[in-house]
Design goal:
57 residues, mainly alpha, Arc Repressor Mutant, subunit A, 2 strands
Length: 57
């Protein structure tokens, strides 16, 4: 399963999370999560309900 899919699945089952929290829960580096979040925001699969927090649509 790709990192983007894992992030979306995690965000669907939890409240909005920060990139560091996502990285910690998935056991990957924050840099990888930042890159994946950028791609997911561009494809509009996730959004930021408030600054530095992300949630699935």
């Amino acid at each position: 399963m790709s990192l983007e899919v894992q992030i979306v699945a995690l965000l669907k089952e939890s409240q909005p999370l920060r990139p560091g929290e996502i990285a910690e829960k998935l056991g990957v580096s924050k840099d990888e999560v930042d890159k994946a979040i950028k791609a997911l925001k561009k494809s509009e699969e996730i959004y930021a309900p408030k600054r530095c927090f992300y949630s699935a649509k």
